[in-house]
Design brief:
By secondary structure, the protein is mainly alpha-helical. Helices cover 58% and strands 5% of the residues. The longest helix is centred in the N-terminal third of the chain and has 29 residues. The chain is globular. Keywords: Membrane, Transmembrane, Transmembrane helix. This is Acyltransferase 3 domain-containing protein. It comes from Iphiclides podalirius. Pfam families: Acyl_transf_3.
């Protein structure tokens, strides 16, 4: 995989056209760069030190000579091949964890079924938490029949909104692989930025504000309902934060662990090392950011599992809300003023950052290049 920059020994109207076109960086690729997959042994021999860059240079030059241009190689990466390498110690330990979870699920499900058939069989509540039958019942539970307060059934429509919203999130993330990898038709991606439907997808991070609003509303609403019978103290505030961390972290860490240990072994090819192996390497170096839910502050280009930025932001907002709720419940007359001030600050802060740093306030997360 060769990256090269186009040059011309003489004045070239074509190269000037490509440079002018590439100046629109928000919507256009840098067309003065070319990316080629080349079989270097067809173009030349390796140098005495085993370096194939000169042969790669000849390969790329041959592909652009017909346009009166030359190409200067700036980087070259080798295509990865399927290997028979065994998983690392981390990967083997993950396999042990998966087998243990499978055994627990089988035992818990069998015990659950026996417990319903035989009254003499009693199940341990911690073991039954792994029962497939019980978890299926929880997943399919009718949300219009709340287990606690009847007022919670008024929120059932939000379950549908969140479900539809998460389908849109999955849909948009599936498409990003065609943007992040090399493509044969870059003009198709460039035209996406002028299409209304694609503009909505490309600005999907803005749509996720709806998830944050729903999450905050549901947390506040449930706390207000429960505080009628049991006061929401600072200790319960800390328990709420711990409960959310415990609820989210095992699944998030499992996905992170899989990305670091097994994902690189599942494929190969010219772009595999660039997309997948690099992701695993970045996760290995910065996994603790994910455990602390601070990975949304990692600089672009260094973040792994970038789609999980939402979890970090959601956790941070939950901590802020949990700390604010005891104060709001104590001084309710100040609640409207306090939340209005927070909302106003959250609107003015990004506006100020965009203005002072001269940022483009929209479509900044996914430029083509």
């Amino acid at each position: 995989m060769v990256d090269a920059v186009l040059t011309s020994p003489t004045s070239s109207p074509l190269l000037q056209l490509l440079e002018d076109y590439s100046k629109q960086t928000l919507k256009h690729y840098n067309r003065t760069l070319v990316h080629r997959g080349v079989c270097v042994s067809r173009c030349g021999q390796a140098a005495a030190d085993g370096d194939w860059r000169e042969a790669a240079q000849l390969c790329v030059n041959q592909s652009v000579l017909q346009y009166g241009l030359e190409a200067r190689v700036i980087s070259a990466d080798w295509c990865s091949s399927p290997s028979s390498d065994l998983p690392s110690s981390s990967g083997r330990f993950l396999a042990v964890v998966c087998i243990a979870l499978l055994v627990l699920a089988v035992l818990a499900t069998a015990l659950h079924i026996l417990g319903e058939c035989c009254t003499t069989v009693e199940g341990n509540k911690y073991l039954l938490a792994f029962s497939l039958k019980r978890n299926w019942a929880i997943l399919m539970y009718d949300r219009s029949k709340p287990r606690t307060d009847d007022r919670m059934k008024n929120l059932t429509s939000m379950e549908g909104i969140r479900f539809i919203g998460i389908q849109c999130v999955i849909f948009s993330h599936v498409l990003w692989i065609y943007v992040y990898s090399y493509i044969d038709n870059p003009q198709f991606v460039e035209k996406m930025y002028d299409h209304l439907g694609w503009k909505l997808v490309l600005n999907s991070p803005l749509w996720l504000q709806a998830f944050f609003s729903l999450s905050g509303f549901l947390t506040a609403y449930s706390v207000l309902v429960c505080s009628e019978t049991s006061p929401f103290t600072f200790a319960k505030c800390l328990l709420s934060i711990a409960n959310r961390w415990i609820r989210l972290t095992p699944v998030a860490v499992f996905a992170l662990w899989f990305t670091m240990s097994w994902f690189p072994l599942l494929g190969s090819g010219p772009q595999w090392a660039w997309l997948v192996a690099r992701e695993a390497h970045d996760c290995t170096q910065r996994w603790w950011y994910h455990v602390l839910y601070a990975h949304n502050h990692i600089p672009l280009g260094k973040m792994c599992m970038g789609h999980t930025w939402y979890l970090a932001v959601d956790m941070q907002l939950h901590v802020a809300l949990a700390l604010a709720l005891p104060l709001v419940l104590r001084w309710r007359r100040m609640a409207a003023l306090a939340f209005a001030a927070i909302a106003l600050a959250s609107i003015l802060a990004p506006a100020a950052v965009a203005y002072l740093s001269q940022l483009t306030p929209i479509i900044t997360a996914q430029p083509p290049e």
